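Translate sequence into structure tokens.
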Amino acid sequence: MNVGTIVLIGFILDLVFGDPRSLLHPVVIIGKLIQNLEKVLHKYKKIGGVILTIIVVGVTIIVTYFISSYLEIIEIYLIYTIFATRSLALEGVKVFNILKKKDMTLARKELSYLVSRDTHYMQERDIIRSIMETISENIVDGIISPLFFIVIGYFLAPATPLGVALGMGYKAINTLDSMVGYKNEKYIDFGWASARLDDLANFIPSRLTGILLIPISALFLRYDFKSSWRIFFRDRKNHASPNSAQSESAVAGALGVQFGGTTSYFGKMKDKPTIGDKKKEFELEDIKKNINLMYGSAILGMGIAYFLLK
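Result follows.
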């Protein structure tokens, strides 16, 4: 079986089934490794964080490479677990359905599992904005970046499982960032290396997503292609992260909404730069439009990857 087909099967499995919660998931194992190493290395602060990052990413790539060498079915399963397209869509649909029932308390609770911002004060438009920002940012983290590294690996060494190994290596980087890459007192030094490596890993994929995949998807979906492209170039740097606004700006332009603004984190209000033009207020259907853009970007990205790998 050629590598393009292997990646395509893993991608389709994710679209159909989402995360295999009842089976062994590599990210859970990576998370346990991070937790155990943190107990030993945290006291060494920044150097400990560098060592943690090297060990976790290195071990993940090496182990994935060798276990994928045995059977194609293992290779396909691991690729399947790398993507998060359906799971991300389901989180958005869950919040959509709760808001449709006007259960604000439950909507705030569900959103709190997905974001670090305070949700207890949020009104419907705040919840819609927050879930859309999360979906927009995770088009990169959960789909395009891992696909990017999978393609690089298989393109460089098509007769080996280097693609799945690099893809899983990216998942290790992303997991490190989500666990220790915080700018708080506990992790400002220890999580520095993880956060910087995550920024570097997402640098090219985030820009490909914002400049190409989302605008073209908007064109096919009959959203505002021109505005998506224009807002990307204008607002793609309006974020503390060098990568987050790349996809958020393209989505905001395509749907005519404005992300950013005043947001509460850990009891403190923060004025974030705005992204997009406020052509209208947030509406419940915007969540589904955002999910459509996510699926469109994922399928378009997979189509390009298959063409490169076939």
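Note: The chain has one domain: 3-309.
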